[in-house]
Amino acid sequence: MLPVSIPSPAQGVWYVGPFPLRAYALCILAGVFIAVWWTGRRYRRLGGHPDTTLDVAVLSVPVGIVGARVYHVLTSPDAYFGPDGNLALIPQVWHGGLGIWGGIAAGVASGAWLLHHRGLRLGPFADAVAPTLLVAQAVGRLGNWFNQELFGGPTTAPWGLEIDDAHLPAGYASGTLFHPTFLYEALWNLAGAAFLVWLGHRLRERDGATGGRLIWAYLMVYTAGRAWIECLRVDEAQMVAGLRLNVWTSLLVFVVGLVGYVVVSRRHLDDEASAAPSQAA
């Protein structure tokens, strides 16, 4: 045992009779539970019905998992379609391999469709769910710790992560410590969630409403951290112009979030300006 370091869990699967309980899945489910519970409370304070949150979750969570897996498969094709690939691995999500970009896109799209179908405004629900997504992602990242995957490069920092020999990347000696990128991202997400809660209070005090801006702020907060954390990782990834594909995706999504935030903010100010004369009258 190294004198100063973060040990990896001894196991990530427990059996109840013949049924496996996988830490990766349990972490994701715990994150989903927290997000649904907290979103329900936030949405109710914004005037929504808490049952709507559960209905959205029942649809968007499984759709999001499928979207996350599809994104991972398409951006890491060699393991499935390459010369030594195995198509049978595609549905085996319990071994890891969920791309957050596909999960968020598919989950948000399906949730937005349901809200539109019921004639409900998307903005309040989006503002309610924004910080809870970051908390869910923070909890879900613990699954990577149990799986001993997606860690960063070698480090001599006292918080270096121990990795079992069976999970060591090629070329690294036994006992090497690695950056615990799962921990960096989890802490970043928790701090980001706190920031979004503060931002929501600030916008309501100043403008009277958040106006759907928090979901765009969420995109900027998450991707600002994901971009630099992604650069630390040593797992195989698709490279584009010398950078990992997820770095480029983070930069693109950050710009989308920035543009969306600015557009929605201007629209909110225009609505206030147009309503002012009628209120004065």
Describe the protein's topology.
Layout: E1 13-16, E2 19-22, H1 23-45, H2 50-75, H3 78-81, H4 100-117, H5 122-147, E3 161-162, E4 177-178, H6 181-207, H7 214-232, E5 239-240, E6 243-244, H8 245-280
Antiparallel strand pairs: 1-2, 3-4, 5-6
Helix pairs in contact: 1-2, 1-5, 2-4, 5-6, 5-7, 6-7, 7-8
Describe the protein:
The longest helix has 36 residues. The protein has a two-stranded antiparallel ribbon. It has a two-stranded antiparallel ribbon with strand order 3-4. It starts with 12 loop residues before the first strand and ends with a helix. The chain contains eight helices and six strands, in the order ββαααααββααββα. With 281 residues, it is mostly helical. It is globular and about 60 Å long. The mean pLDDT is 90. α1 runs antiparallel to α5 and α7 packs antiparallel against α8. A hairpin with a 2-residue loop joins β1 and β2. Helices cover 64% and strands 6% of the residues.
Structural class by SSE content: mainly alpha
Tell me the fraction of residues in β-strands, as a range.
Answer: 5-15%
Provide the helix percentage: 55-70%
Provide the spatial order of strands within the biggest beta sheet. Answer: 1-2
Give the rounded overall mean pLDDT: 90
Helix and strand sequence = EEHHHHHEEHHEEH
How many DSSP-defined strands?
6
The profile of the biggest β sheet is:
2 strands, antiparallel
Shape, please? Answer: globular
Radius of gyration: 21 Å
What separation lies between the terminal Cα atoms? 75 Å
Number of DSSP helical runs: 8
Low-confidence stretches: none
